[in-house]
Specification:
heterodimer, A: Aldehyde Oxidoreductase, domain 4, five-stranded mixed beta sheet, 28 strands, B: alpha+beta
Chain lengths: ~750, ~160
């Protein structure tokens, strides 16, 4: 067992004290001299041609300083990849969903900005809208975008082995269709930005983002500004869950308004805007066909997926590719076929949302496995163990697994939950369900980029400073990455000064998504800290006239092992190197991996290049009220293979938060649409779990010590809600025999299922 | 917008004489006029609880209260709980229990807990959950928030 003194310790978030005092500055807390307030005029119809926009009355309002339309923009389309770019910051000829940005205003106060919006006259010619992806694929469907021949934005086809042959060799064939719905991220902080922009395009932007460095690039491209002129700063971020990765029109708009007025401009989304006009989880319809042997061996599996894109691409094509990768890579199956279509509709558009297409895949596959287990009369856990991934496996779709603790997750969850005893007892209306997952444990270099940078320095007074591009949005990376640096430099983590995610002062980092910061940010920090440690030890060795290999670091001093009385302090080393030797003590670290293998297909993500894969199992125990169909989740075990828990307290927080978000998606959270309009754009009608709704959750950390991860660690953040829904759905079936194939599992659906069952 | 009204309020022990528009919410008064930005705006509709403050000993969602209604009131916001570097036991319990992730709901959670424990120093689990039901958190899944409340109760006994 490795003997670490700081890594592996459950220390609280280092920034929690500022947060409990109310001192932590979030973007919405920023107030600059002369600051104006920006507001956005959004489309109130789902699909229309813009005939004319008349701003003449709005500009006359005394408190208004600027009104802009698409004519004030360079008309550059964007998405997360230039190849899929389809969204303008402000619409020029068409609006494509309720919420589409048409014009924007900057005024001296929010009320005047609102009033000015009401004075803008938009002449629209309404067009027929299409809201269902299957209808949108019909030849007569209205097309959303210019120059397209169909509303299918992306088609993915992949086959490994031969499913036809596999199905022919199978004893049993099972087929079914599974549907998932939209989920809103619901970070309690809404999107906000404050921009300044000089006449020569020198931009300062304080912004709620998960990815400051990519945002800088995207902003530069979209506004045709030299990237070097853009400075992005990230105050504390009030949660993200994927919603704060892509460029938001408001961010570009705030810069344009700031330039036009010469004043700082702040735009803060209302909660309604957050629901109707920021991204959400893509709904899917998944048809699965599985071929299995009587002994449970999966011989072949096939998925046909239709993913509802909404009006624009954002992350869509990548989310579809992840849906494929995660479906195809989980379990040892040689014959796999995947066909996926991403389809435009006149609705709010999907984006990255915790799990990135994986919860949708997990729901379909894991409910299907439960149905197979019942059909072949096999314990659902044994079925999964039979087909589980193993360490160092290269999967049929050419994905290289390093560490893998799926079997341990399954067996530990079984043990801790009392699965066998409770199943045998078979208490009425109670049930247990299990589901597993795979995800990346460190982002992916599929896009060609998976970079994180860090710098560590010892100041002349011996204090340590860590600068990193990685960003803490609440998940705790500031704490765990500092723990890694502190472990290497043998100091208390709170003594390390930290600068993060500022595009002018930190090395670039792709950002906080893809469960990548622990791994990629960690690799960069470990390299920087080890580099600094080497230099510090060399200095100490010179000062002590000793061999660097014989030295020990402790209490901010260095001595020859066994003689702590003859030590040099970090302060002495820092001063000596900086002033006498005239050599600043600084080291850099950088990660951008893994290597991409020749097998990689950038469209389907066959050969998906993730630095590590993570695995997990959720096990739910529910009780169903037979008179109402209401589900109560009683107990919940969440076992996750995360390599190593750098900080178990923070890992528990990720697992618990993920599971509760997953329970919400399973049972109640649902963005409800009618003709393209969101009917519940507020927390009153969109139901998140409250503290009253939570079950007992037992997080289990399966430490597989990844051979390449920093201190053996892999990611956890997104993974924690991936298999929640199928675990609950399978538990509901175990409790009352009602099989929900369309999320969410509302009381109404279960009640209807119970009624149908009784009438049979 | 209407004429401004004069009000007098005491916030965290400090008395303020203010002229306010009749349509200004207490939340905006605290955040913009008094620069007490620890009180957060998460929905401005009374649903999320991030803007919770204590007014005359009772929990209020400050986005639903007009500032003029608060004439003569005594308020506690998150900035008024600690004394310098010395945290209130509830604040300390939130830190130690890992109950703070992004921290945006935290001030509201802490103040609701404070009002609860002022009223009921030894609440049952049901009472805790009932009191905190109006405070939404997306990060923690509430488990460590419950731990924090229970730890605070132990500390304050």
């Amino acid at each position: 067992m490795d003997n670490y003194s700081i890594v592996g310790k459950p220390i609280p978030h280092l920034d929690a004290v500022e947060k409990v005092k109310g001192n932590a500055v979030f973007t919405s807390d920023i107030k600059l001299n002369g600051m104006l307030f920006g507001k956005i005029l959004r489309s109130s119809v789902p699909h229309a041609k813009i005939r004319n926009i008349d701003i003449s009355q709005a500009v006359k309002l005394k408190a208004v300083r600027a009104v802009i339309t698409s004519k004030d923009t360079p008309l550059v389309r964007y998405s997360i990849s230039p190849t899929w770019a389809d969204k303008l910051v402000l619409a020029d000829q068409k609006v494509r969903y309720i919420g589409d940005e048409i014009a924007a205003v900057a005024a001296v106060d929010e009320e005047s900005a609102e009033e000015a919006l009401s004075l803008i006259r938009v002449d629209l010619e309404e067009l027929p809208g299409v809201y269902d992806p299957f209808e949108a694929m019909q030849s007569e469907a209205p097309l959303l975008h210019d120059g397209i021949v169909s509303n299918i934005s992306k088609t993915l086809r992949m086959e490994c082995g031969s499913v036809a042959e596999g199905f022919a060799r199978s004893d049993i064939i099972m087929e079914d269709t599974f549907k998932t719905h939209a989920q809103s991220h619901c970070s309690i902080e809404t999107h906000c930005c404050v921009a300044t922009c000089s006449a020569t395009d020198e931009v300062n932007l304080w912004v709620t983002t998960q990815a400051p460095h990519p945002l800088r690039q995207r902003l530069a491209m979209t506004l045709k500004i030299d990237v070097a002129k853009i400075h992005i700063m990230t105050p504390f971020i009030g949660g993200g869950f994927g919603s704060k990765i892509d460029l938001e029109p408001a961010q570009a708009i705030s810069v344009l308004l700031a330039k036009k007025t010469g004043k700082p401009v702040k735009i803060e989304h209302s909660r309604k805007e957050q629901f109707i006009a920021t991204r959400m989880r893509h709904p899917t319809v998944t048809h699965l066909k599985f071929g299995v042997k009587h002994d449970g061996t999966i011989i072949a599996k096939q998925a046909n997926v239709v993913m509802d894109n909404g009006a624009y691409n954002s992350h869509g094509p990548a989310v579809l590719a992840y849906n494929n990768v995660m479906f195809s890579t989980l379990y040892r199956v040689n014959n796999i076929k995947y066909e996926g279509r991403l389809v435009y509709t006149n609705k709010n558009w999907g984006g990255a949302c915790r799990g990135y297409g994986d919860p949708q895949a997990s729901f379909a596959q894991e409910v299907m496995l439960d149905m197979i287990a019942e059909r072949i009369n096999m314990d659902p856990i044994d079925l999964r163990l039979k087909n589980a991934n193993i360490p160092n496996q290269v999967t049929a779709n050419a994905v290289k697994i390093t560490s893998c603790g799926l079997k341990e997750c399954l067996t530990e969850a079984r043990k801790v939950s009392g699965w066998r005893t409770k199943k045998a007892a078979g208490k009425k209306y109670r049930g247990l369900g299990i589901a597993s997952m795979i995800y990346t444990g460190g982002g992916s270099i599929g896009s060609g980029l998976n970079y994180s940078g860090a710098t560590m320095q010892m100041n002349p007074d011996g204090t340590l400073q860590l600068l990193m591009g990685a960003l803490d949005i609440g998940q705790g990376s500031n704490t765990i990455l500092t723990q890694m640096a502190a472990e290497i430099m043998a100091v208390e983590p709170e003594t390390i000064r930290l600068t993060t995610a500022d595009t002018d002062t930190t090395f670039p980092c792709m950002g906080t998504f893809g469960s990548r910061v622990t791994y990629c940010g960690g690799k960069a920090v470990v390299e920087a800290a080890n580099g600094l440690k080497k230099k510090v030890l060399e200095n100490a060795a010179e000062m002590l006239e000793a061999n660097p290999d014989d030295l020990e670091m402790k209490n901010k001093s260095i001595f020859v092992m066994g003689t702590p009385e003859k030590a040099v302090t970090y302060a002495e080393i820092g001063a000596s190197s900086f002033y006498k030797k005239k050599e600043p003590l600084v080291a850099h670290g950088y990660y951008n991996g893994p290597e991409v293998s020749p097998d990689f297909d950038p469209v389907t993500y066959k050969g998906y290049p993730a630095p590590a894969l993570v695995f997990g199992t959720h096990l739910a125990e529910v009780e169903v009220d037979p008179t109402t169909g209401k589900v109560e989740v009683l107990n919940f075990v969440a076992a996750h293979d995360l390599g190593r828990a750098i900080n178990p307290l923070l890992v528990e927080g990720q697992i618990e938060g993920g599971a509760v978000q997953g329970i919400g998606w399973s049972l109640m959270e649902d963005v409800k649409f009618e003709n393209g309009e969101i009917l519940n754009p507020n927390f009153h009608d969109y139901k998140m779990l409250t503290i009253k709704d939570i079950p007992k959750i037992i997080p289990l950390m399966i430490e597989t010590i990844d051979p390449n991860g920093p201190f053996g660690a892999k990611g956890i953040g997104e993974c924690a809600m991936v298999p929640t829904a199928p675990a609950i759905i399978n538990a509901i079936y175990d409790a009352v025999g009602v099989r929900i194939k369309e999320l969410p599992a509302t009381s109404e659906k279960i009640f209807k299922g119970l009624k149908e069952k009784r009438s049979k | 917008m209407g004429r401004k009204h004069q009000i007098q309020i005491t916030v965290n022990g400090e008395a303020h004489d203010l002229l306010v528009h009749p349509n200004k919410t207490l939340l905006d008064l605290l955040r913009y006029d008094l620069c007490l930005t620890g009180t957060k705006k998460g929905c401005d509709e009374g649903d999320c609880g991030a803007c919770t403050v204590i007014a005359n000993g009772k929990v209020v969602t400050s986005c639903l209260v007009l500032a003029v209604e608060m004439d003569g009131a005594t308020l506690t916001t998150i900035e008024g709980l600690h004394k310098g570097d010395e945290l209130h036991p509830i604040q300390q319990a939130f830190v130690d229990s890992g109950a703070v992730q992004c921290g945006f709901c935290t001030p509201g959670m802490i103040l609701t807990t404070k009002a609860l424990l002022d009223e009921t120093p030894d609440p049952s689990e049901e009472e805790i959950k009932h009191y905190l039901e109006g405070n939404l958190c997306r990060c923690t899944g509430y488990i460590k928030i419950l731990d924090a409340v229970n730890n605070a109760i132990k500390q304050m006994k």
